Amino acid sequence: MTAPLLSVQGLGKRFGGFVVLDDINFEVYPGERLGLIGPNGSGKSTTVNCLSGVLTHDTGTITFDGQALDGLRPHQRSYAGLARSFQIPRPFARLSVLKNIKVPMMFAAEKRSGRRFSEAELDAQARQALDQVGLLAKAELLAGSLTQIDLRKLELARAIAAQPKLLIADESMAGLATSETDEILALLLQLNSQGIAVIMIEHIMRAVSAFSQRLVVLAAGKKIADGPTQEVLRDPLVERIYLGD
Amino acid sequence: MPSSNLRFFVGLLMAGALVFFGVQALAEGYYLLVAFYILQYIVLATAWNILGGYGGYVNFGSACFFAVGGYSTVFFYKLLGLQTLKSLDCGWFVITGPYLSYLIIPASVLAGAVISGLMGLGTGYLTLRLRGVFFAISTLALTVVVQTLVLNWSYVGGARGAYVMRSPSVAGFASTNEFVFFVMLLIAMAALAIARSIERRKLGAGLEAIRDDEDSAECSGVPTLQLKLQATTISGAMMGAVGALFPFFVTFVDPIGAFNLVHTVNSIAMPLIGGMTHWSGPLIGAVLLGGVQQYFGSKNMVTPELSLLFVGVLMMVFVAIAPNGILGLWQRLRGKDVK
Amino acid sequence: MVPLIHGLGRAPHFVLNRLMEISTILDLLANALVAGVMLGGFYAAVSVGISISFGMLDIANISHPAMIMLGSFMAYLINSHWGLDPLLIMLLIAPLFGLLGMGIYRVYFQLFESREKDPRRGLAFFFGLLFVTDVLLILFFGADLRGVETSYVDTVLNFGVVGIPLRLLIPFFIGVLVVLCMHLFLTRTFFGLAVAAVSQEPLGLRLMGVDPVRVKQIAFGLSVATAALGGAALIIIQPVEPALGREYIGRVFAVCVLGGMGSMSGTLFAAILLGVAESLTSTFVGPSWSPAVAFGILLFTLAWRPSGLMGRT
Fold first, then answer.
1. Domain annotation covers residue B185
2. Alpha carbon distance B324, B338 (integer Å)
3. How many distinct structural domains can be found in chain B?
4. What percent of chain C stands above pLDDT 70?
5. The pLDDT of residue B308
6. pLDDT tens-digit readout, B200-212
7. d(Cα A212, Cα A227) in Å, to the nearest integer?
8. The CA-based dihedral angle spanning residues C211, C213, C214, C220, taken in that order and rounded to the nearest 10 degrees
9. Cα–Cα distance, C155 to C164 (Å, whole number)
10. What CA–CA distance (Å, rounded) separates C222 from C178?
11. Which residues fall within 8 angstroms of residue C1, CB to CB, at 6 or more apart?
12. Class of residue B202 by CB neighbours under 10 A (exposed 0-12, middle 13-18, buried 19+)
């Protein structure tokens, strides 16, 4: 029985009097594909923000790769190997696409590898990463000028450039056309095949069910299901939550 | 790339030599004065731009960092009794009058840099965890407070101001003024080199990422607080350095002149008008705007207030229609994507 | 310590002196406290505008102090030419300043409000407005102090040991009144509720047929109008000069931040706190330390009240 890569225990978060997350527990194993689903407002984004450190959770513990993440700033968590993409892409708009990739490499990846990257190395690695997602031709463009699908690819590429062990892909397919969704899906599968565990947060059911090995379902801040994908999808409670979906 | 570094430093040294010997050749004190002030503004603008242009955190306290540098000179002058110093016995050798400035002036510059740098670090530590607007407001309020403190500090002269007596001559230079000008030139060259170095390294990339999206930068591994503090400290130190040199040039320091808003306004307007994304932007802005102000000021065609008004209006115009400054306009003309 | 034997004969005087000292200190304390509260009420008047523009609309209008000074100088101008009482002038110029504020917002919105734009530009814009106004005031009025002539400028009401000058009491009431009116406006009128909602629920407002931009524009106009009111109140308290505005930058933002960024009652409470702190400092340490008090409170609040100030990207 392998140790979990990510262990979330008793995670709780409130905004003022409003409880957004209530006693959330789940685990992610190395190289696993986990889907995190739930209706709008169920706390998925808050969970992601607590995991990445953008928000400070009130109760509970987050353990990653044997290390407690509680109290660590987001950049420190990236050094541990946790990466996330943002629901609405947040590129460095005034930097080139290439430089957008170089930043996580210079900081997160370099720290993780324990040695300095030379200028040439950075450049080569960055171009390779862009090639992987099909953005090499646009390397010199300003990130702010990209199309939606390209922005999402860049968003994922930036997260991968940090050389993580776990990638949290927060609604990376929202608002895309079917063919574009498939592109992203293929990309995530490819990443996973390289050994990166992925938590996929998505509303697009076919994508989540095709991708995930396990599902965690949130509703109104609580976890209501956790198990193998097909089992969870057949759970009457889950069905009720997704009435008509 | 080593060759571009070589080109930069050779170019910098040549420009520096040109400025120095050019001013010397022109022999009129007026040109030295103008050049001194333009160099001073090059440093202030460059310093401001490290935090404001690269990092996106606006500092409204440039005058404060500048003045603190100036007053650190006044303070140490009084403290160490440098007014009456004729020679200094260092044990192995004695530094006599014409050589004293070689020690005192650079040491003062260093002291001013350290003190203003620490002030930057302190202010940053207290306010940089929050949104940039709070840092900006704090620097604005800080200036008022420090100015009030200095006004009431009789040791450094209070409202009456203080005189800084310098050596009547400096070995190797035609006048003390010329030596001070030389030191300013060195500081300006150093400032440009530092800015360029920051721009090309991790600190610069990290600051730009912070500017564009701080949370995103954090998640990419950028230690945002650390980098912001580094930028604030370096920026403050540079401003303090030229502030510390200033008393040696004008020999009289008073709170109204030292904390003058014109330093703050220019340190923001010059990078904004020149261009905030490259080390050459503040340089362009300082030369152009500084040159214009010096020209009209010297001809007594405008009062200081009108000059300030002009800079302010120009700044607002650029902010409105050409926020990327002259560099940005030029890039657009060349058809390139503008940052 | 006075030696016991030597002091025995002087004990009664010693005790009496001490008692007088204490009573003087208590006297000073009482007056300082009351003056502080009065001042605080006035600070509320000048800070309400920032509570609206910065606290509620999230616009860092650092030119607000310049608007206050503009109000003061307008009051001076009208008073010196036509002899009108500042209280009356207040009512006359407030609508004008309201229109000015709306105009400023229009320009600001056109140029900077859309999300792609740099937050630095807005800051630079208002900074430009701040010192351009400052410089214009210096050009028109010079650096001298300007005051107003009123019938009550020297009247002091005495309540036992405490003396309250009318020139403090009236601005205090103005401050309380302005805060009260603003509070009622924001909670009881439709438009006021719209202002309160406009930052959080612009979509909701649109769905109700209300234009968020218009709401913000009028709210900003209101904030500048209150600056005029504050400015006119200021000149009742003391003669003014253009440079005075600088002290208010720290004050108005300290009050807004300490008051909870947008709460009217918070603004009043914070303003009084600031007024008292400044008054006590002025009396027992020295009058020149006042700007430091506001700045200190600002920093303290920023350091220890993270919620609502952080994570508001």
1. yes
2. 8
3. 1
4. 92
5. 86
6. 999 999 999 999 9
7. 10
8. 150
9. 9
10. 11
11. none
12. middle
Query: Using alpha carbons only, what angle is made at residue A168 by residues A50 and A77, rounded to the nearest 5 degrees?
Result: 55
Q: What is the CATH number of the domain that holds B28?
A: 1.10.3470
ipTM of the complex: 0.92
d(CA B228, CA A90): 20
- Hey, is B167 helix, strand or coil? coil
- Alpha-carbon distances of A231 from A215, A239, B174, rounded to whole Å: 9, 11, 90
Domain that holds residue A214: 6-241
Nearest chain C residue to A144, by CA: C116
- Is residue B102's pLDDT more than 60? yes
- Beta carbons of B221 and A53 less than 8 Å apart: no
Three-state secondary structure readout of A124-157: HHHHHHHHHHCCHHHCCCEHHHCCHHHHHHHHHH
**In this structure, what DSSP letter does residue C114 have?**
S
Contact A55 C116 (CB under 8 A): no
Q: What's the confidence (pLDDT) of residue C125?
A: 92
Residue C51, pLDDT > 90, answer: yes
In a domain, B145, yes or no: yes
Residue B83 DSSP code? G
How many structural domains does chain A have? 1
Among B residues 183-222, those touching chain A with beta carbons less than 8 Å apart: 202, 205-206, 208-209, 211-213, 215-222
Helices C245-258 and B132-151, axial angle in degrees (round to 10): 130
Strand-by-strand arrangement of the A67-68 sheet: A18-28, A6-15, A59-64, A67-68
Tokens coding B97: 């009058």
> Could C249 and B144 be called an inter-chain contact, meaning their C-beta atoms sit closer than 8 Å?
yes
Give me the pLDDT at residue A107, please: 95
The per-residue pLDDT for A238 is 85
In a domain, B286, yes or no: no
Residue A225 in domain: yes
pTM comes to 0.91
The two tokens of residue C180 are: 């009260």
For A141-187, write each residue's pLDDT tens digit. Answer: 999 999 989 999 999 999 989 999 999 999 999 888 888 899 899 99
Half-sphere exposure of C299 (CA within 13 A, CB side): 17
B117-121, B196-200, C194-198, C230-234: which has the minimum mean pLDDT?
C194-198
Q: What is the pLDDT of residues B202-254, one digit of tens each?
A: 999 999 999 999 999 999 999 999 999 999 999 999 999 999 999 999 999 99
Question: Between vectors from CA B230 to CA B227 and to CA B232, what angle results, nearest 5°?
Answer: 110
Partner-chain contact B216 A90, CB within 8 Å = yes
Tell me whether residue B26 is in a domain. yes
A vs B: CB pairs below 8 A: 90
Count CB-CB contacts under 10 A for residue A106: 24
